[in-house]
Amino acid sequence: MNEKKAITRREILAGMGLTALGMIGLNSAWQKLGNNIPHTNQNRTAAEGNTPFPNVALYTHEGKAVRFYDDLIRDKVVAINMIYAQCAGICPIATANLVQVQNMLGERVGRDVFMYSITLQPELDTPEVLRQYAERHGIQSSWKFLTGAPEDIKLVRYRLGFFDRDENIDNVKENHTGMVRIGNDALNRWSMAPALSEPQQIMATINHLDPRAVHTRHI
Predict the structure, then answer these.
(1) Is the torsion defined by CA of 80, 85, 87, 90 positive or negative?
(2) pLDDT in tens, 54-97
(3) Residue 119 in 3-state DSSP?
(4) Confidence band (pLDDT; 50, 70, 90) for 213?
(5) Separation of alpha carbons 176 and 169, rounded Å
(6) Which end of the chain is more exposed for a tag (fewer CB within 10 A), N or C?
(7) Is 192:182 a contact under the CB 8 Å cutoff?
(8) Using an 8 Å Cβ cutoff, are 215 and 189 in contact?
(9) Cα–Cα distances in Å, from 53 out to 68, 102, 129?
């Protein structure tokens, strides 16, 4: 491991404390990693179009650096939920439910429909932790699990609509794990579905927003 990578790793580990100082350190470390992404648009918000979504740097469970809007959302049909690896409540049940949706979608995942799960606990959920989570749940590689700097994850969460105006409620991570945000960026059409609803219902919402699947039925 070269010196630059070693320093970055120490910065990330130093930022994993629960104090405010630790969180600042982690944000700084993620930001330095994000600066290494070769990309024409380095702004926090996508410059083109009227999208409300930020273009922050995130990292997949496979360790790949991506830009949230340009690489994951732009012109795509997406299904997005919030999880964290240590969640023992809704998260594993919702993930199992969405595995059924992924199976229903088949080859459409990663081609016509893109599935993302974003951690609510980026200070602990590194790409490797998320890789292990995906592996435990038998998830195919076309479904991406994402982490990043805590401040960027919070911004993405708010822009996706996973928030509550009551700060006390908003600060409880479990309160953001019960829904799936489904949208078609090209058509600017967005909806939500309960993560614990029948997989067929989630599938129907996806198909409703994907013109290529208007006549798709699942019995």
Answers:
(1) positive
(2) 999 999 999 999 999 999 999 999 999 999 999 988 999 999 99
(3) strand
(4) confident
(5) 10
(6) C
(7) yes
(8) no
(9) 8, 24, 26
Cα–Cα distance for residue pair 99/80, rounded to 1 Å:
13
Q: How many CB atoms lie within 10 A of CB 98?
A: 22
Cβ–Cβ under 8 Å, residues 80 and 181: yes
Angle between helix 199-209 and 90-105 (nearest 10): 60
**DSSP letter, residue 204:** H
User: Domains plus CATH for the chain?
Assistant: 54-208 (3.40.30.10)
What's the mean per-residue pLDDT of the chain?
Answer: 82
Q: What is the pTM of this model?
A: 0.77
CA 71 from centroid of its chain's CA atoms: 12
Question: What band does 169 get if pLDDT is binned at 50, 70 and 90?
Answer: very high
80: which strand partners?
116, 181
The one-letter amino acid at 19: T
Decide: 96 and 198 in contact? Cβ < 8 Å.
no
The mean per-residue pLDDT over the stretch 101-110 comes to 95
Q: How many CB atoms lie within 10 A of CB 63?
A: 11
Partners of 116 in beta bridges: 80, 144
In tens, the pLDDT along 85-97 reads: 999 889 999 999 9
Taking residues 115-123, report their average pLDDT. Answer: 97
Question: What is the chain's Cα-based Rg?
Answer: 17
